[in-house]
Write a structure and sequence with these properties.
This protein is mainly α. Helix content is 55%, strand content 6%. The strands form 2 sheets. It has a 3-stranded parallel β-sheet. A two-stranded parallel sheet has the order 4-5. Bound molecules: tryptophanyl-5'AMP (TYM). Tryptophanyl-5'AMP binds next to strand 1, helix 1 and helix 7.
């Protein structure tokens, strides 16, 4: 059986990286895979402080963004993580399977906790165990994500294998990451060596799905570049992270490969290319933004989608969790 699972955190506005690295790929995959679950991971969000009202708003907005981007809420299961107890329950079991050493090597924890590890929440440290639980509570087999989640998915594989070995079962599948498209790692518009991220203090560093056409044009115009014209071959992108990033974004939005973008735009000045890129971005993102605004305002509809999604997700995870309880040795009187 093939089953897709993926998730996104409701921690502020979604950006171009979330869209091109993940959500847009989900839209394509739901055509080929019968069984898809897309989760707004609110339990993950609270590993760092979230204002409750902002968390609620963001959870609805992320669900709206998924639907606006083209996820079919009837065909795929859209839900928020906290409404399905299996996630937290299996995460606890995985806390007892995963080793401290494994988690200590996670680069995302090191980046997020920074110098002040002592003050990071325990949840932030155990975050990848919850992520493994998200997928495996449904025996998910394929996980479409951006490049930054690769290490977490390797850990999910290790956890599944150790669980199977420890208990002498062939129960959890080995999870396959699906990392594809021309923009698996979208970089900051202010620094082509840094990932585009929600937590960057500069709003200029990212395009968000709530930006209007003016904001998009302004941010693209101000994006960092170098003084040379765009390269005419792929080798010419070597050592030019900003050019590589902007051309990669163009390719992803246009549905072209990088070679095509280099053929069409190589030799142009950045000023001209930025105008083309801004036009393309507005063309591709504005319909999604408009639909997302409309859906976000319809709270009753979004809440209904999430409620029905959670019901389906609970029904899918319940028999798997019952088996997990038997395997671990928990009595179910
Ligand atoms: P999150 O919320 O940080 O990001 C959601 C998705 O967007 C991708 N992404 C990017 N892709 C390309 N370029 C970027 N700059 C960029 N920034 C983010 C991420 O790779 C991700 O696919 N831990 C996950 C959420 C999660 C999850 C899961 C994912 C929780 N449980 C189970 C898959 C399976 C996260 O924080 O994603």
């Amino acid at each position: 059986m093939r089953r897709i699972f993926s998730g996104v955190q409701p921690t502020g506005n979604l950006h171009l990286g979330n869209y091109l690295g993940a959500i847009r790929n989900w839209v394509h995959l739901q055509r080929d895979y019968e069984d898809c679950l897309f989760c707004v991971v609110d339990l993950h969000a609270i590993t760092v402080w979230q204002e409750p009202a902002a968390l609620r708003a963001s959870t609805r907005e992320v669900a709206a963004a998924m639907i606006a981007a083209g996820i079919d809420a009837e065909k795929s299961v859209i839900f928020n993580q906290s409404q399905v107890p299996a996630h937290a329950e299996l995460a606890w079991i995985f806390n007892c399977v995963a080793r401290m050493g494994w988690l200590s090597r996670m680069t995302q924890f090191k980046e997020k906790a920074g110098k002040n590890k002592e003050n990071a929440s325990v949840g932030l440290f155990a975050y990848p165990n919850l992520m493994a639980a998200d997928i495996l509570a449904y025996k998910g087999t394929h996980v479409p994500v951006g490049d930054d989640q690769k290490q977490h998915l390797e850990l999910a594989r290790d956890i599944a294998q150790k669980f199977n070995n420890d208990f002498g079962v062939d129960f959890f599948p080995v999870v396959e990451p699906l990392i594809f498209g021309a923009a698996t790692r979208v970089m900051s518009l202010r620094d082509g060596t840094k990932k585009m991220s929600k937590s960057d203090p500069s709003d200029q560093s990212r395009i968000t799905l709530t930006d209007d056409a003016d904001a998009i044009a302004r941010k693209v115009r101000k994006a960092k570049t170098d003084p040379d014209p765009l390269p005419t071959s792929k080798d010419g992108l070597e050592g030019r992270p900003e050019a590589a990033n902007l051309m990669g974004i163009y390719a992803a939005l246009a549905g072209q490969d990088l070679e095509q973008v280099i053929r069409d735009h190589g030799g142009h000045q950045f000023s001209r290319f930025k105008q083309d890129l801004a036009d393309l971005m507005v063309d591709r993102l504005q319909p999604i933004t408009a639909e997302m605004r409309r859906l976000t305002a319809d709270t009753a509809y979004i809440d209904g989608v999430l409620r029905r999604g959670a019901e389906k997700a609970r029904a899918l995870s319940a028999p798997i969790m019952a088996e997990v309880q038997d395997i671990v040795g928990f009595l179910r009187p």
